[in-house]
Amino acid sequence: MKDVKILAVVGMSGSGKSVVVDYLTEKGYPKVYFGGMILREMEKRGIERTAESEREFREMIRETEGADWVVRQVIEEVHDLIEAGQKRIVLDGVYSWTEYVTLKHEFPGEMVFLAVVVDKHLRHKRVGVRKVRPFNTEEIQERDRTEIENIEKGGPIAMADYYALNNGTVKDLHVRVEEILQKIEF
User: Fold this and answer.
1) Given this model, what pLDDT does residue 95 score?
2) How far apart are CA 157 and CA 94, in angstroms?
3) Which helix (H) or strand (E) holds 104?
4) Of 24, 92, 126, 136, whose Cβ has the fewest other Cβ atoms within 10 Å?
5) What is the pLDDT of residues 136-174, one digit of tens each?
6) Quick count: other Cβ atoms within 10 Å of Cβ 26?
7) What are 97-122's pLDDT values in tens digits?
8) How many whole angstroms separate alpha carbon 88 and alpha carbon 78?
9) Could you tell me the domains of the chain?
10) Which pLDDT value is given to residue 1?
C-alpha cells in the first residue's frame, strides 16, 4: 500500500502505552484499540467487565476462536481506515506473538512497532495509583505473568523497531515519541 504507515504501540501494563496513543490521537491520527475488540465482544455477550473477567475472556476468546481472533478484527478496521483515505494509523495494544506475526504478514513494509518501556518498580508504582484499573503489587505481578506466559506479550516488545523509555515525565516521553515519528516519517 503506497505511503501507508501503521504504528503499533506495545508495552506491558502501566508502561505508558495509553499516554503515547493519546498523544498521537490528539495529533489527529486514528487509532484501532486491540482491547476494544475484547470489550466490545464482552459487552455483546453480556459479560460484566472486571480485571478478572477481561483476563479470562482474553484467554478464552483466543483459545476458542483462535489466537488471531483479535488481530483479525483489527485488520478489518485498519483496511476500512485505509479505504477511507487514512495514511497514518495507530494500533493500541498488540498483545501476542501471533498478532505481531499476522500484522507483519498482512501489512509488509507498512508496520512499525514502538515499545514503551519503564523500569519495573516504577511501572508497578504507576499502575497502583492510576485512575483507570489500578492494581496492587500482587495483581500487577500476576497480570505480568499471565500476559507473558499465556498470550506471549513479550515477543512484540522484544522485536519492536523502536523503544521509548518512560522513566521521566510525560513531556520527556512526548519528546522521544516525536524523535521516533521523525525517523519513520509518520
Assistant:
1) 83
2) 9
3) helix 97-106
4) 136
5) 888 889 989 988 887 789 999 999 999 999 999 999 999
6) 8
7) 989 999 999 999 999 999 999 999 99
8) 10
9) 5-184 (3.40.50.300)
10) 66
Q: Is 3 left (phi over 0), alpha (psi -120 to 50) or beta?
A: left
Residue 127 near residue 13 (C-beta atoms within 8 A): yes
Query: Which stretches of 35-131 are assigned E, i.e. beta strand?
Result: 88-92, 111-117
Q: For residues 103 and 106, give the distance between their C-alpha atoms in angstroms, rounded to a whole number.
A: 5
Residue with cell 509488509: 108
- Cβ atoms 116, 166 nearer than 8 A: yes
Amino acid occupying residue 75: I
Buried residues in 115-136 as b, exposed as e (16+ CB within 10 A): bbbbeeeebbebbeeeeeeebe
Amino acid found at 126: R
Q: Which residue has the cell 478489518?
A: 76
pTM, two decimals, is: 0.88
Which pLDDT score is estimated for 69? 92
Long-range contact pairs involving 140-145 (C-beta distance under 8 Å, separation at least 24): 140/13, 140/14, 143/13, 143/51, 143/55, 144/12, 144/13
Asked whether 97 and 155 are in contact (CB, 8 A), the reply is yes
Instruction: Tell me the mean pLDDT in the region 177-182.
Output: 98
Asked if 60 contacts 71 with a C-beta cutoff of 8 angstroms, the reply is no
